[in-house]
Amino acid sequence: MSTEKYVSDVKVINYPLEKVYEKLSDLRNLNKLMDPEKLKEAREKVPNAPDIKFENFRATEDECSFTVNPIGSVGIKVIDRELNKTIKLQGSETLPIKFNCWIQLLPHEEENCKMRLTIHADMNPMIKMIVDKHLKEGVNKVAEAFTRIPFE
C-alpha cells in the first residue's frame, strides 16, 4: 500500500469565506444538495459529470453516509476543523480505498474566497492502476462543483 496525493487547482468561490466554511463544515447541509433534482441540475452544469446515484443519505454535523451503486455503503466524517481555514474529512472503513480529504479555504476578496481540495488515498498498486486517472480528474471536478454550490 502506498499513499497517493491528489490536489485540485485553486478555485474561486463567489461567496464570503465565512459562509462557505459554515456550509461545508456541517455535513447536514449536504441534505439539500443530495435532492435528486439538485443533483440533476449540478450534473448539467459540469461537463462530463458521472451519473452517480446516491441513495439513503443521512447526515449529522460530523458524519454522513449514503449508498452508491455499485460501490455500496459510503461514510464520511469530519476529523478536524480549523475555523474559516480547513475542514478535514475521512472516508469510512467500508471503502476499498482509505482516504482523507482536506478542504482548504483562503480569503480572496470581500465577497469571494479561494478553495483547494487535497485527497490522500491509501491503495495497493492494482487499485491505483484502475482509479489513478479518475482521482486526478475527479479532484478538480469536485472542486469545480464546489464553486457552483449556492452558499446563501
Blueprint (SSEs and pairs):
Elements: E1 2-7, E2 11-13, H1 17-24, H2 30-33, H3 36-45, E3 54-59, E4 63-68, E5 72-82, E6 86-91, E7 98-109, E8 112-123, H4 125-146
Antiparallel strand pairs: 1-8, 2-8, 3-4, 4-5, 5-6, 6-7, 7-8
Explain the overall architecture.
- By secondary structure, the chain is α+β, with helices and mostly antiparallel strands.
- It has a single domain (2-146), classed as Alpha-D-Glucose-1,6-Bisphosphate, Chain A, domain 4 (2-Layer Sandwich).
- Helices cover 29% and strands 41% of the residues.
- The chain has four helices and eight strands, in the order E-E-H-H-H-E-E-E-E-E-E-H.
- The protein has helices spanning 17-24, 30-33, 36-45, 125-146, and strands at 2-7, 11-13, 54-59, 63-68, 72-82, 86-91, 98-109, 112-123.
- Strands 1, 2, 3, 4, 5, 6, 7 and 8 form an eight-stranded antiparallel beta sheet that branches.
- The radius of gyration is 15 Å and the shape is globular.
- The mean pLDDT is 88.
Quick structural gist:
With 152 residues, this protein is of the alpha+beta class. The chain is 29% helix and 41% strand. The longest helix is centred in the C-terminal third of the chain and has 22 residues, at 125-146.
